[in-house]
Automatic annotation (TrEMBL):
Compartmental location: Cell membrane
Protein name in the entry: Cytochrome b
The Cytochrome b561 bacterial/Ni-hydrogenase domain, residue ranges: 7-175
Membrane-crossing residue ranges in chain numbering: 12-33, 39-64, 90-112, 142-164
Species this chain originates from: Candidatus Pantoea soli
Length: 179
């Protein structure tokens, strides 16, 4: 494996596109379940296809992650922080996969279609089942909260590397500089 200082350009683009999509999705989800306003229908119409888009993008992103060279973390980072960084990334990937799949399964269990617009409707991935829906509904909420916390920790770590440590970790994802 050759030594690289930045992530592959496609990985960087996917990272930032997904960051925007996930933050938007979290805000849409909170607004969607906390309001009975006329915006609810529009928010649901955005939430479903955005979730499917995130699911597809994370699959592409994982494929790129396994098939492209990754920059190493600086030697100055302690072993426990390296382990925490790797663990947090895998938690993010797991949540980015699980959250849309659980949402899709939840809607399927409730008998609601996942519509993507233009008449495209995804097939249900579970049978209609009220007991399963009752399990998946709060799970979707709890995983959204865990995703929010994990994203905020990731953001805090990124800012620490960008503004305090200035060790090239942040620039490896922006492509703005070499280590």
């Amino acid at each position: 494996m050759k030594s690289v200082t930045t992530f592959h350009p496609a990985l960087r683009a996917l990272h930032w596109l997904m960051a925007i999509a996930i933050i938007a999705m979290l805000f849409i989800g909170v607004t969607m379940v906390s309001t009975v306003s006329s915006w609810h229908g529009l928010l649901v119409a955005i939430h479903k296809p955005l979730g499917v888009m995130i699911l597809l993008l994370v699959v592409v992103r994982l494929w790129l992650r396994f098939t492209t060279d990754q920059p190493a973390l600086p030697a100055s980072i302690p072993v426990w922080q390296r382990a925490a960084a790797h663990l947090s990334h895998w938690v993010l990937y797991l949540l980015m996969l699980a959250q849309p799949l659980i949402g899709w399964a939840m809607l399927s269990a409730a008998g609601y279609p996942v519509t993507l617009g233009g008449g495209l409707v995804l097939p249900p991935i579970t049978a209609v089942n009220n007991t399963l829906y009752a399990l998946l509904r709060p799970l979707h909420t709890w995983l959204a909260l865990l995703l929010f916390v994990t994203v905020m920790m990731h953001l805090a770590a990124a800012l620490l590397h960008a503004l305090v440590r200035r060790d090239g970790v942040f620039s490896s994802m922006t492509g703005a500089g070499k280590r």
